[in-house]
Amino acid sequence: MFEETKKKVRKYLSNDIGIDLGTANTLVYIAGKGIVINEPSVVALNQKTGRVVAVGTQAKEMLGRTPAHIVAVRPLVDGVISDFEITEEMIAHLLRRAEEYLPKMLGPRVVIGVPSGVTNVEIRAVRDATKNAGAREVYIVEQPMAGAIGIRLPIKDPVGNMIIDIGGGTTDIAVISLSGVVRSKNVRIAGDKLNNDIISYIRSEFKILIGEKTAEIIKMSVGNVVPGEPMEASIKGRDLITGLPREVIITDSDIREAMSQSIESLLEATKEVLETTPPEILADVMSRGIHLIGGGALIKGLDTLLFDYLKIPVYVTQDPLTAVARGAGIIIENLDGFEEVLILNEDELPRKK
Ligand SMILES: Nc1ncnc2c1ncn2[C@@H]1O[C@H](COP(=O)(O)OP(=O)(O)OP(=O)(O)O)[C@@H](O)[C@H]1O
Ligand SMILES: [Mg+2]
Fold it and tell me: If you classify domain 159-189+263-319 with CATH, what class do you get?
Protein backbone atom coordinates (compact mmCIF):
# COMPACT_ATOMS: atom_id res chain seq x y z
CA MET A 1 0.00 0.00 0.00
CA PHE A 2 2.72 2.39 1.11
CA GLU A 3 4.69 1.49 -1.99
CA GLU A 4 1.68 2.35 -4.14
CA THR A 5 1.32 5.77 -2.55
CA LYS A 6 5.02 6.39 -2.91
CA LYS A 7 4.78 5.51 -6.57
CA LYS A 8 1.89 7.89 -7.08
CA VAL A 9 3.67 10.73 -5.31
CA ARG A 10 6.79 10.10 -7.30
CA LYS A 11 4.81 10.12 -10.51
CA TYR A 12 3.15 13.38 -9.53
CA LEU A 13 6.40 15.05 -8.64
CA SER A 14 8.51 13.62 -11.41
CA ASN A 15 9.42 15.81 -14.27
CA ASP A 16 11.10 13.38 -16.55
CA ILE A 17 11.27 14.03 -20.25
CA GLY A 18 12.50 12.42 -23.42
CA ILE A 19 13.89 14.47 -26.31
CA ASP A 20 14.48 13.60 -29.94
CA LEU A 21 16.98 16.23 -30.96
CA GLY A 22 16.67 15.94 -34.72
CA THR A 23 18.26 17.88 -37.55
CA ALA A 24 14.84 18.69 -38.95
CA ASN A 25 12.48 18.36 -35.98
CA THR A 26 12.80 18.34 -32.21
CA LEU A 27 10.22 16.50 -30.13
CA VAL A 28 9.68 16.57 -26.39
CA TYR A 29 7.94 13.74 -24.56
CA ILE A 30 6.82 14.17 -20.97
CA ALA A 31 6.62 11.05 -18.83
CA GLY A 32 3.02 10.09 -18.24
CA LYS A 33 1.77 12.60 -20.82
CA GLY A 34 3.32 11.83 -24.19
CA ILE A 35 4.63 14.15 -26.88
CA VAL A 36 3.87 17.78 -26.02
CA ILE A 37 6.25 19.61 -28.35
CA ASN A 38 6.97 18.75 -31.98
CA GLU A 39 8.63 21.58 -33.86
CA PRO A 40 11.26 22.25 -36.50
CA SER A 41 14.83 22.52 -35.17
CA VAL A 42 15.19 26.15 -36.17
CA VAL A 43 16.27 29.16 -34.13
CA ALA A 44 15.86 32.79 -35.22
CA LEU A 45 18.58 35.08 -33.89
CA ASN A 46 18.93 38.84 -33.77
CA GLN A 47 22.50 39.36 -34.87
CA LYS A 48 22.72 42.84 -33.38
CA THR A 49 21.88 41.71 -29.87
CA GLY A 50 22.76 38.02 -30.13
CA ARG A 51 19.32 37.30 -28.69
CA VAL A 52 17.05 34.43 -29.68
CA VAL A 53 13.97 35.90 -31.34
CA ALA A 54 12.02 32.73 -31.97
CA VAL A 55 12.36 28.96 -31.83
CA GLY A 56 10.63 26.15 -33.71
CA THR A 57 7.65 26.70 -36.00
CA GLN A 58 7.74 30.46 -35.52
CA ALA A 59 11.43 30.57 -36.43
CA LYS A 60 10.95 28.31 -39.46
CA GLU A 61 8.31 30.64 -40.82
CA MET A 62 10.93 33.38 -40.71
CA LEU A 63 13.40 31.38 -42.85
CA GLY A 64 14.21 33.39 -45.93
CA ARG A 65 11.86 36.18 -44.91
CA THR A 66 13.85 37.95 -42.23
CA PRO A 67 15.22 41.48 -42.21
CA ALA A 68 18.99 41.58 -42.58
CA HIS A 69 19.83 41.55 -38.88
CA ILE A 70 17.65 38.53 -38.07
CA VAL A 71 18.92 35.14 -39.16
CA ALA A 72 17.11 31.85 -38.93
CA VAL A 73 19.56 29.00 -38.33
CA ARG A 74 19.45 25.28 -37.88
CA PRO A 75 21.73 24.47 -34.97
CA LEU A 76 22.09 20.85 -36.04
CA VAL A 77 23.59 19.85 -39.33
CA ASP A 78 23.91 16.26 -40.53
CA GLY A 79 22.44 15.08 -37.26
CA VAL A 80 25.13 16.62 -35.09
CA ILE A 81 25.45 19.86 -33.20
CA SER A 82 27.09 22.42 -35.42
CA ASP A 83 26.49 25.35 -33.11
CA PHE A 84 26.78 24.50 -29.45
CA GLU A 85 25.44 27.75 -27.99
CA ILE A 86 22.41 27.93 -30.25
CA THR A 87 21.59 24.28 -29.59
CA GLU A 88 21.75 25.00 -25.89
CA GLU A 89 19.44 27.97 -26.34
CA MET A 90 17.03 25.84 -28.31
CA ILE A 91 16.96 23.09 -25.69
CA ALA A 92 16.60 25.65 -22.90
CA HIS A 93 13.69 27.25 -24.71
CA LEU A 94 11.99 23.89 -25.19
CA LEU A 95 12.57 22.90 -21.56
CA ARG A 96 10.99 26.18 -20.45
CA ARG A 97 7.98 25.46 -22.62
CA ALA A 98 7.80 21.90 -21.35
CA GLU A 99 7.74 23.31 -17.83
CA GLU A 100 4.18 24.44 -18.45
CA TYR A 101 3.33 20.78 -18.17
CA LEU A 102 5.65 20.01 -15.25
CA PRO A 103 5.84 20.71 -11.53
CA LYS A 104 8.71 23.18 -11.34
CA MET A 105 10.50 21.57 -8.44
CA LEU A 106 13.79 20.42 -9.83
CA GLY A 107 15.33 20.48 -13.25
CA PRO A 108 14.03 17.55 -15.27
CA ARG A 109 15.74 14.24 -15.86
CA VAL A 110 16.20 13.97 -19.60
CA VAL A 111 16.72 11.08 -21.99
CA ILE A 112 18.05 12.42 -25.25
CA GLY A 113 18.70 10.59 -28.52
CA VAL A 114 21.86 11.04 -30.59
CA PRO A 115 22.61 9.51 -34.01
CA SER A 116 24.47 6.20 -33.89
CA GLY A 117 28.22 6.40 -34.24
CA VAL A 118 28.64 9.91 -32.87
CA THR A 119 31.97 10.62 -31.23
CA ASN A 120 32.57 11.09 -27.51
CA VAL A 121 33.12 14.77 -28.15
CA GLU A 122 29.68 15.04 -29.74
CA ILE A 123 28.09 13.08 -26.89
CA ARG A 124 29.70 15.44 -24.42
CA ALA A 125 28.41 18.41 -26.40
CA VAL A 126 24.84 17.10 -26.29
CA ARG A 127 25.14 16.26 -22.60
CA ASP A 128 26.59 19.66 -21.71
CA ALA A 129 24.06 21.55 -23.81
CA THR A 130 21.20 19.72 -22.10
CA LYS A 131 22.67 20.19 -18.62
CA ASN A 132 23.37 23.87 -19.19
CA ALA A 133 19.83 24.22 -20.48
CA GLY A 134 18.57 23.18 -17.06
CA ALA A 135 18.40 19.39 -16.95
CA ARG A 136 19.18 17.75 -13.61
CA GLU A 137 20.35 14.47 -15.12
CA VAL A 138 21.02 13.60 -18.73
CA TYR A 139 20.92 10.13 -20.25
CA ILE A 140 22.03 9.57 -23.79
CA VAL A 141 20.62 6.90 -26.09
CA GLU A 142 21.38 6.14 -29.70
CA GLN A 143 18.48 7.23 -31.89
CA PRO A 144 18.00 3.91 -33.71
CA MET A 145 17.80 2.17 -30.31
CA ALA A 146 15.26 4.72 -29.08
CA GLY A 147 13.34 4.31 -32.34
CA ALA A 148 13.29 0.52 -32.00
CA ILE A 149 11.97 0.88 -28.45
CA GLY A 150 9.46 3.47 -29.66
CA ILE A 151 7.96 1.05 -32.16
CA ARG A 152 8.06 -1.70 -29.55
CA LEU A 153 10.49 -4.07 -31.17
CA PRO A 154 11.66 -6.76 -28.70
CA ILE A 155 15.14 -5.23 -28.43
CA LYS A 156 15.99 -7.11 -25.22
CA ASP A 157 15.41 -10.54 -26.78
CA PRO A 158 18.16 -12.59 -28.36
CA VAL A 159 16.80 -11.93 -31.85
CA GLY A 160 17.92 -9.59 -34.60
CA ASN A 161 15.82 -6.45 -35.12
CA MET A 162 16.64 -4.19 -38.02
CA ILE A 163 15.70 -0.56 -38.20
CA ILE A 164 16.43 2.22 -40.68
CA ASP A 165 15.88 5.78 -39.44
CA ILE A 166 15.82 8.21 -42.36
CA GLY A 167 15.75 11.70 -40.88
CA GLY A 168 16.58 15.15 -42.19
CA GLY A 169 20.35 15.04 -41.86
CA THR A 170 21.26 11.41 -41.36
CA THR A 171 20.15 7.89 -42.02
CA ASP A 172 20.87 5.40 -39.27
CA ILE A 173 20.85 1.76 -40.22
CA ALA A 174 21.08 -0.55 -37.23
CA VAL A 175 20.72 -4.17 -36.26
CA ILE A 176 19.84 -4.62 -32.61
CA SER A 177 19.82 -7.67 -30.38
CA LEU A 178 20.03 -8.23 -26.60
CA SER A 179 19.75 -4.47 -25.91
CA GLY A 180 22.81 -3.72 -27.99
CA VAL A 181 23.55 -2.40 -31.44
CA VAL A 182 25.14 -5.36 -33.23
CA ARG A 183 25.88 -3.59 -36.51
CA SER A 184 25.19 -0.05 -37.60
CA LYS A 185 25.98 2.51 -40.20
CA ASN A 186 25.29 6.20 -40.21
CA VAL A 187 25.22 7.97 -43.56
CA ARG A 188 24.68 11.64 -44.20
CA ILE A 189 22.14 11.00 -46.89
CA ALA A 190 18.59 11.74 -45.79
CA GLY A 191 15.76 14.23 -46.36
CA ASP A 192 17.95 17.35 -46.66
CA LYS A 193 20.19 15.70 -49.24
CA LEU A 194 17.16 14.68 -51.30
CA ASN A 195 15.90 18.27 -51.23
CA ASN A 196 19.29 19.45 -52.46
CA ASP A 197 19.33 16.77 -55.15
CA ILE A 198 16.01 18.13 -56.40
CA ILE A 199 17.28 21.72 -56.38
CA SER A 200 20.39 20.73 -58.38
CA TYR A 201 18.43 18.65 -60.85
CA ILE A 202 15.92 21.42 -61.55
CA ARG A 203 18.71 23.92 -61.88
CA SER A 204 20.56 21.83 -64.45
CA GLU A 205 17.57 20.44 -66.35
CA PHE A 206 15.20 23.41 -66.34
CA LYS A 207 17.62 26.27 -65.65
CA ILE A 208 15.58 27.60 -62.81
CA LEU A 209 16.42 28.04 -59.16
CA ILE A 210 13.96 26.87 -56.51
CA GLY A 211 14.13 27.16 -52.73
CA GLU A 212 14.49 24.37 -50.19
CA LYS A 213 10.89 24.61 -49.10
CA THR A 214 9.62 24.11 -52.65
CA ALA A 215 12.00 21.19 -53.14
CA GLU A 216 10.70 19.55 -49.96
CA ILE A 217 7.08 20.01 -50.98
CA ILE A 218 7.59 18.40 -54.38
CA LYS A 219 9.62 15.59 -52.83
CA MET A 220 6.63 14.78 -50.65
CA SER A 221 3.93 15.27 -53.28
CA VAL A 222 5.44 14.10 -56.56
CA GLY A 223 8.37 11.98 -55.35
CA ASN A 224 8.04 8.24 -55.87
CA VAL A 225 11.15 6.08 -56.07
CA VAL A 226 9.40 3.38 -58.09
CA PRO A 227 7.44 4.19 -61.25
CA GLY A 228 3.73 4.18 -60.60
CA GLU A 229 0.79 6.36 -61.40
CA PRO A 230 2.15 9.40 -63.29
CA MET A 231 2.21 12.55 -61.17
CA GLU A 232 3.13 16.12 -61.93
CA ALA A 233 3.31 19.49 -60.29
CA SER A 234 3.93 23.01 -61.42
CA ILE A 235 6.70 24.85 -59.63
CA LYS A 236 7.82 28.42 -59.63
CA GLY A 237 11.41 29.48 -59.50
CA ARG A 238 13.84 32.06 -60.76
CA ASP A 239 15.01 31.71 -64.34
CA LEU A 240 18.79 31.49 -64.17
CA ILE A 241 19.24 33.37 -67.45
CA THR A 242 16.64 36.15 -67.30
CA GLY A 243 16.55 36.40 -63.52
CA LEU A 244 12.75 36.53 -63.71
CA PRO A 245 10.20 34.17 -62.22
CA ARG A 246 9.24 31.21 -64.37
CA GLU A 247 6.92 28.26 -63.94
CA VAL A 248 7.63 24.70 -65.09
CA ILE A 249 5.88 21.37 -64.86
CA ILE A 250 7.87 18.56 -63.28
CA THR A 251 6.89 14.92 -63.13
CA ASP A 252 7.46 11.99 -60.77
CA SER A 253 10.02 10.71 -63.23
CA ASP A 254 12.05 13.96 -62.89
CA ILE A 255 12.06 13.65 -59.13
CA ARG A 256 12.92 9.96 -59.31
CA GLU A 257 15.86 10.80 -61.53
CA ALA A 258 16.93 13.64 -59.24
CA MET A 259 16.95 11.41 -56.14
CA SER A 260 18.27 8.26 -57.80
CA GLN A 261 21.92 8.50 -56.74
CA SER A 262 21.14 9.19 -53.12
CA ILE A 263 18.53 6.45 -52.99
CA GLU A 264 21.03 4.06 -54.53
CA SER A 265 23.54 4.97 -51.84
CA LEU A 266 20.94 4.19 -49.17
CA LEU A 267 20.30 0.76 -50.70
CA GLU A 268 24.05 0.13 -50.83
CA ALA A 269 24.55 1.19 -47.21
CA THR A 270 21.75 -1.13 -46.08
CA LYS A 271 23.29 -3.99 -48.02
CA GLU A 272 26.67 -3.30 -46.42
CA VAL A 273 25.18 -3.55 -42.95
CA LEU A 274 23.50 -6.85 -43.84
CA GLU A 275 26.72 -8.21 -45.32
CA THR A 276 28.54 -7.89 -42.02
CA THR A 277 25.65 -9.04 -39.83
CA PRO A 278 26.33 -12.43 -38.16
CA PRO A 279 24.41 -15.26 -39.89
CA GLU A 280 22.03 -16.13 -37.05
CA ILE A 281 20.98 -12.52 -36.69
CA LEU A 282 20.73 -12.12 -40.44
CA ALA A 283 18.31 -15.06 -40.51
CA ASP A 284 16.17 -13.29 -37.90
CA VAL A 285 16.15 -10.10 -39.94
CA MET A 286 15.20 -11.99 -43.08
CA SER A 287 12.16 -13.45 -41.41
CA ARG A 288 11.25 -10.51 -39.16
CA GLY A 289 11.83 -7.79 -41.72
CA ILE A 290 13.25 -4.27 -41.74
CA HIS A 291 11.43 -1.41 -40.03
CA LEU A 292 11.55 2.09 -41.48
CA ILE A 293 11.24 5.12 -39.20
CA GLY A 294 11.94 8.87 -39.49
CA GLY A 295 10.31 11.22 -41.99
CA GLY A 296 12.14 9.55 -44.87
CA ALA A 297 10.19 6.35 -44.21
CA LEU A 298 7.33 8.15 -45.94
CA ILE A 299 9.17 8.47 -49.26
CA LYS A 300 6.79 6.81 -51.67
CA GLY A 301 7.94 3.48 -53.02
CA LEU A 302 10.97 3.15 -50.77
CA ASP A 303 9.63 0.05 -49.05
CA THR A 304 8.98 -1.63 -52.41
CA LEU A 305 12.39 -0.66 -53.72
CA LEU A 306 14.16 -2.01 -50.63
CA PHE A 307 12.21 -5.23 -50.82
CA ASP A 308 13.01 -5.71 -54.51
CA TYR A 309 16.68 -5.09 -53.84
CA LEU A 310 17.11 -7.15 -50.67
CA LYS A 311 14.24 -9.63 -50.80
CA ILE A 312 13.54 -8.96 -47.14
CA PRO A 313 10.13 -7.73 -45.96
CA VAL A 314 10.09 -3.98 -45.26
CA TYR A 315 7.62 -2.27 -42.94
CA VAL A 316 6.88 1.44 -42.77
CA THR A 317 6.09 2.20 -39.15
CA GLN A 318 2.93 4.02 -38.26
CA ASP A 319 3.72 7.60 -37.37
CA PRO A 320 7.42 7.24 -38.25
CA LEU A 321 8.34 10.83 -37.34
CA THR A 322 7.62 10.33 -33.65
CA ALA A 323 9.22 6.89 -33.13
CA VAL A 324 12.46 8.15 -31.54
CA ALA A 325 10.64 10.55 -29.19
CA ARG A 326 8.19 7.83 -28.15
CA GLY A 327 11.16 5.54 -27.46
CA ALA A 328 12.95 8.21 -25.40
CA GLY A 329 9.68 8.58 -23.49
CA ILE A 330 9.34 4.86 -22.84
CA ILE A 331 12.92 4.82 -21.56
CA ILE A 332 12.48 7.76 -19.17
CA GLU A 333 9.29 6.20 -17.83
CA ASN A 334 11.25 3.06 -16.98
CA LEU A 335 14.88 4.05 -16.53
CA ASP A 336 15.82 0.97 -14.49
CA GLY A 337 14.50 -1.33 -17.17
CA PHE A 338 16.55 0.28 -19.89
CA GLU A 339 19.84 0.96 -18.16
CA GLU A 340 21.76 -1.19 -20.60
CA VAL A 341 20.73 0.87 -23.64
CA LEU A 342 21.96 4.15 -22.17
CA ILE A 343 25.32 5.72 -22.78
CA LEU A 344 25.66 6.78 -19.17
CA ASN A 345 28.94 8.55 -19.22
CA GLU A 346 31.69 8.39 -21.75
CA ASP A 347 34.23 7.67 -19.00
CA GLU A 348 32.16 4.94 -17.37
CA LEU A 349 31.24 3.23 -20.58
CA PRO A 350 34.04 3.30 -23.10
CA ARG A 351 32.52 3.24 -26.55
CA LYS A 352 33.66 0.83 -29.19
CA LYS A 353 34.40 3.44 -31.82
N1 LIG B 1 5.86 12.37 -46.72
C2 LIG B 1 7.17 12.51 -46.79
N3 LIG B 1 7.86 12.08 -47.87
C4 LIG B 1 9.19 12.23 -47.96
N5 LIG B 1 9.95 12.80 -47.01
C6 LIG B 1 9.32 13.25 -45.90
C7 LIG B 1 7.91 13.13 -45.72
N8 LIG B 1 7.57 13.67 -44.51
C9 LIG B 1 8.72 14.12 -43.98
N10 LIG B 1 9.78 13.87 -44.79
C11 LIG B 1 11.18 14.25 -44.59
O12 LIG B 1 11.62 13.74 -43.37
C13 LIG B 1 12.67 14.57 -42.86
C14 LIG B 1 12.44 14.85 -41.39
O15 LIG B 1 12.37 13.64 -40.72
P16 LIG B 1 12.66 13.53 -39.15
O17 LIG B 1 11.83 14.50 -38.41
O18 LIG B 1 12.55 12.10 -38.81
O19 LIG B 1 14.18 14.03 -39.12
P20 LIG B 1 15.04 14.40 -37.84
O21 LIG B 1 14.84 13.34 -36.81
O22 LIG B 1 14.80 15.78 -37.43
O23 LIG B 1 16.51 14.32 -38.45
P24 LIG B 1 17.78 13.45 -38.00
O25 LIG B 1 17.25 12.16 -37.46
O26 LIG B 1 18.56 13.27 -39.26
O27 LIG B 1 18.50 14.28 -37.01
C28 LIG B 1 12.64 15.85 -43.68
O29 LIG B 1 13.75 15.86 -44.56
C30 LIG B 1 11.36 15.75 -44.48
O31 LIG B 1 11.46 16.35 -45.74
MG1 LIG C 1 15.69 11.63 -36.26
Answer: alpha beta
